[in-house]
């Protein structure tokens, strides 16, 4: 019964996981040792651990370019600092819901899975939290309902995938359909207004000039970052996604961990459901349409490997903000949404292409040249 | 055998208990009873057409969309049918796409109803079905989404999308002229842009505005959902620091648009809605938001379609008209609801 986790290894002392040590590339070690002689900080930058940071810098570069394009095309707006500040907050606010979903999605993808049901879970949680019966329990009842519904659906996903051995794509696709169906059933296909001022104020209130939604996004991102980078849970996630067999041999309960990842994704959807309900002052079964694709796309351009084992929370956040900025850019220029979707598609393809031509090796090549020159 | 400490199993029991408790609690939270939307039916009036006649079996099919308007269509049809003692309604689920609806309708034809009322997923794709049923001698009433072939239907009853745009623009122009705004900034929030109905609405809006020398400054399409409405409106506000008027095509997504308006604190403009939801009418009547008018595209057409299907099945005409049979085509006028007349229309809100 407990053969997967025999007692001696039940509490592993942070086992050295094969998946965590990256494949050693001769050129890379040469570069690394070369760099080590010059400066420790530089070697970090060029080494494997600097990979995510370099990639994120590239994403920030893209953001800067987008802002410059915006400033060039609508200087009449950008010349007003108040407008620019307000617009930045608006971009962050629009990014907040998908951003929270993307944090959960990033964990699932790093763990080697995919969650296609996030939009549907979000809609179901939002609908369930805004029924007349739930609203009679006040804001606390609504928040509790949204979180528990999201978490429970995530757990069901996790059980189907880890213990039912369904392929994640199939299990979550089935959940996508089923959860939307249940949401339509509960709401009777009507738009459910949220009459709770506390909930509605989440989207309109500000603290120190910054909208509450942005704080929620920041809190979820910070929690996600800590969870991924500073805890055993995070290291296990990378290990499970990178090489599940090695992770199992190292004493990780892969099945339970996979279940927890989907539960986490579901919980993020529950949080996002409250935020979306607050933003729209209502919920309906058709909301959050295709958010799963937005979240996956954001994680991918943020450098998360679709096959698992690699990814950063900050990268995913930047991915979401880039999409949100593009939407904003097209809106302020009055361009059609068709063109916007084409640009989004182009950016996704470009991001994946960049991953394939080994972003890392290019920067290291440049770095080595600079070393030999000096 | 296992080495689990009792402590762990107690924790599991606790988790299990909490989970079951939460489940029971939440299951009770799905009830939604306090918001029954009243269906729009025509109460029986006196007159020869309302005398119970030959029993008519009406087959009915509409898409299962998650949209308030479609839901209202189905509810209206059912309510109107039950208002007649001589009508039996046979609803069939239309499924998720035209193919599913075609399959459902073929089984309906084989049951030989007297009349079929259908709101197709897509008029063009279900044209062949209309022809087939008409050839089989069953009159087909097309609801809202036209069949291209005139032989495919006995009666066409639909809303006026172009007219909606015209009505919205006419109201906006009149208001702006009354205020003396010469060069107004007009925003537009359409629904799903790929749909023909959206394009027709926009065309009517633009044509009418152009006739007065006005034009739309920015146009942010939403997707008929509340969250997309909120996002589209937020984008519009960022693009246009000052707005004079907005036309939002759809009152369902308008809930999100109104949320965005409240969140941005913008109120220098007035807004016109579309379709005519109950919420929109109440807001207009209360006159405490920027929503000042809405142009109708009423789902009451489903109730009318059932009434007309009954007349067609019984071979009667419309009593106010000279003709002995029901006409072939009826296009609802898009009416403008303002504070002054909102009380008359409230019963038609969905």
Automatic annotation (TrEMBL), chain A:
UniProt KW keywords: Cell membrane, Membrane, Transmembrane, Transmembrane helix
GO cellular component, one term: plasma membrane
Membrane topology term: Multi-pass membrane protein
Transmembrane segments: 56-75, 95-128, 140-160, 166-186, 207-228, 259-278, 313-332
Subcellular location: Cell membrane
Predominant location: membrane
Pfam families assigned: BPD_transp_2 (PF02653)
CDD domains: TM_PBP1_transp_AraH_like (cd06579)
InterPro entries per UniProt: ABC_transp_permease (IPR001851)
Region named Disordered: 1-36
Comp. bias regions, Low complexity: 1-12, 27-36
Molecular functions per Gene Ontology: transmembrane transporter activity
PANTHER family: ABC TRANSPORTER PERMEASE PROTEIN YPHD-RELATED-RELATED, RIBOSE IMPORT PERMEASE PROTEIN RBSC
Protein name (database record): Ribose transport system permease protein rbsC
Lineage: Bacteria, Bacillati, Actinomycetota, Actinomycetes, Micromonosporales
Gene: rbsC
UniProtKB/TrEMBL annotation, chain B:
Keyword Chloroplast: no
Record Pfam families: Peripla_BP_4
Main location, first listed in the record: other
Segments forming domain Periplasmic binding protein: 58-316
GO CC annotations on file: cell envelope
One annotated GO molecular function: carbohydrate binding
Key word Signal present: yes
Entry keywords, A to Z: Signal
Subcellular location: Cell envelope
Lineage: superkingdom: Bacteria
Family, as annotated: Belongs to the bacterial solute-binding protein 2 family.
Protein name per its UniProtKB record: Extracellular binding protein/LacI transcriptional regulator
